[in-house]
Amino acid sequence: MLIGLGVTGGISAYKAVEVARGLQKRGHEVTAIMTAAATRFVGPVTFEAITRRPVVVDQFAPGANADIEHIALASSIDLLLVAPATANILAKMAHGIADDVLSTLYTATRAPVLVAPAMNTHMFSHPAVRANLDTLAARGVKFVEPGEGYLACGWIGKGRLAEPDEIVAAVERMLRPEGPLCGARIVVTAGPTYEDFDPVRYIGNRSSGRMGFAIAAEAARRGAAVTLIAGPTTVAVPGGLDEVIHVRSAQEMHRAVMERAANADIVVMAAAVADYTPIEPAAQKMAKTSDTLTLVLTRTPDILGDLGEARVTAGRGPLLVGFAAETSDVVARGRDKLRRKHVDMIVANDVSRSDAGFDVATNLVTILTAEGQEALPLQSKDAVAANILTRVEHLMARQAPVAH
Ligand code: PMT
Question: Is the entire prediction scored with pTM above 0.90?
Answer without folding.
Answer: no
